[in-house]
Amino acid sequence: MNLISYITKYTQLPIKSVENTVELLNEDCTVPFISRYRKERTGNLDEVQIGNIVQYKAQYDALEKRKAAILKSIEEQDSLTPELEQKITKAEDLTTLEDLYLPFKKKRKTKAETAIKNGLEPLAKIILTQKSNDIAFEASKYLSENVANEDDALEGARHIISEWINERTDIRNQLRLQLEKFAQVTTKVITAKKDDEKAQKYRDYFDWSESLNRCPSHRLLAILRAENEGYVRVKIAIDDDKAISNLAYRIIKANNSCTPHLQLAIEDAYKRLLFPSLSNEALKAAKVKADESAITVFSKNLKQLLLGSPLGEKRILAIDPGFRTGCKVVCLSAQGELQHNETIYPHAPQNDSTGAIKKISSLADAYKIEAIAIGNGTASRETEQLIKRIQFKNNIEVFVVSEAGASIYSASKIARDEFPNYDVTVRGAVSIGRRLADPLAELVKIDAKSIGVGQYQHDVDQTLLKNSLDTVVESCVNTVGVNINTASVPLLSYVSGIGPKLAENIVAYRNENGAFTSRAEIKKVPRLGPKAFEQGAAFLRIKKAKNPLDDSAVHPESYSIVKQMVKDQGIALSEIIGNKEVIKKINLQQYCTDTVGIPTLEDIVKELEKPGLDVREKAKVFTFNQNIRSISDLKEGQLLPGIVNNITNFGCFVDIGIKESGLIHISNLSDSFVKDVNEHVHLHQQIIVKVLEVDIPRKRIQLSLHKQ
């Protein structure tokens, strides 16, 4: 099976679309570029479909690489037959491939290998053919210096048969099927650790049993974490007697003196070789599925977070709240530049609320502050209440902003490079303010898995997680577009075709030569060649450029099309921007060519209507219930405002303005069956919840979604 056939088999996409997409990928085109600017070649595939092609292309390449290594290994052993070579070449998955390779794999010294060296292989074949009525007599022919008696000879022969059984692909597949259908995952608490305080969060799994194929992602990952932390033992179990009986049915065809030895060999093969290997394989496969499910949830959450509502270019006063150490205050320009910082002490033990109010009020006047951002950590509610007591001269909106990951950023190299002369507290406050202005631009500076919207993100495959999250960040950055004259190196590095090194070169060029005035000038950046320009130019925006298309998603390669449209309408380029009446008159068919079709032309006219339109909603002010200060203030039946701060497969967590987030279990999201939590709520959505249950000792809050 060739690459294109392999991909189309698993994606069910048109062959021509797959062929052209693979060609573009081989030409080093990025997924965002292909999905946006090569629609005619791909048949209008979206980012998800192109991402699937990328995934299966990588799988195919890995499979072919493994085939080559296996063929070489078997050939070096002089064991490669034409039939085996054909089977290996035709294998379509790694499991089949590894089963074919199993008999030729270099192993540790085994009991079977020792028996073969002692000349017992012919005896094993006699037993397996099941034609001898006196196997003890046959065994007596194989005694030697290393084989003392008939019992030793028969035991050695059984070891050889056990290994042969283990290497049979049909038997392995039969047992795989049984495990897939009937395997149970069971847990038992480690008695010595049963009463540990940290073990209590896993107490549901102290004595647990469940069908492996029905165990949801979050539960399997919790069970495996409990095992890794040493609180439980995990086992995979099936009906052993039934499994052995099924093997015997396949192997035993007679009833004579060979039969008991075959039965013993089957039991040994099952217990010592087959079940340990394949049950471990089944658990690993379940873990892979659980990882993929958790990563999918994390990716959806991350996308929603990155595309969170920006306030835009406003002058912001940001506060990182605290009690004993005070509240760090910074003033930022509309472009996010740090203009001022200091610390106020409105809370215990200093309790200088009067001084704090005066200081905030004077800073708001001095720096013409338009909005205030307060971190949602320790002392957040108290600080918010203090700010709302201030009578500002102008209308200043107050926002509470998630601090998740801010401490990671403030101690990072990126933060040190941005603010070498300030400590982590100042950097953290700056990050809070910038998150309000533009969540995407700020959050790309933080390792995605530290942002706090994942489900068991430290337990899943870290390479898979990183690749998936990088894809999400890249998609979000290129969906929104980047202002090349204000973007940081981390933000620029996610732009299609740019990467970290070119991002550094862009910023260095900008610092040396001033702001870019046109997209054409981007070509002057050192080492930014034609390919990088082709891939990235349309995602880089230049505000107030002479050519208005430089602040749009229209690709420079299509400028000539717009120029012709404008000429045909008899107006200037500036007159067509946002002019829906003129745009409606354009006959798109007139501009179709061999390479440019209706999909691209429709994208162009959409941009002409609203060039550089930000797909994100604007930030909205939100207020928690001011009477709820701690979990002890909660009562069953209360209706409270909240903000969704994390989404999992089993429900969503909601910030209701106290230290503990409440859980809306999936069963409490709707009156009907909920398949996907994301269909009912999204990250940072402002909702009303009803308190169902409050468990103060365990600090757990059960909520339901209140229909407004």
UniProtKB/TrEMBL annotation:
Name of the protein described by the UniProt record: RNA-binding protein
Taxonomic lineage from the root: Bacteria, Pseudomonadati, Bacteroidota, Flavobacteriia, Flavobacteriales
SUPFAM superfamilies: Nucleic acid-binding proteins, Ribonuclease H-like, RuvA domain 2-like, Tex N-terminal region-like
GO BP terms in the entry: nucleobase-containing compound metabolic process; translation
Listed PANTHER family: 30S RIBOSOMAL PROTEIN S1 (PTHR10724), S1 RNA-BINDING DOMAIN-CONTAINING PROTEIN 1 (PTHR10724:SF10)
Coiled-coil boundaries: none
Top-level division of the source organism's lineage: Bacteria
Any one cellular-component term (Gene Ontology): cytoplasm
Organism: Arenibacter certesii
GO molecular function terms listed in the Swiss-Prot or TrEMBL record: mRNA binding; structural constituent of ribosome
Pfam families reported in the protein's UniProt record: HHH_3, HHH_9, S1, Tex_central_region, Tex_N, Tex_YqgF
PROSITE patterns hit by this protein: S1
Domain S1 motif: 637-706
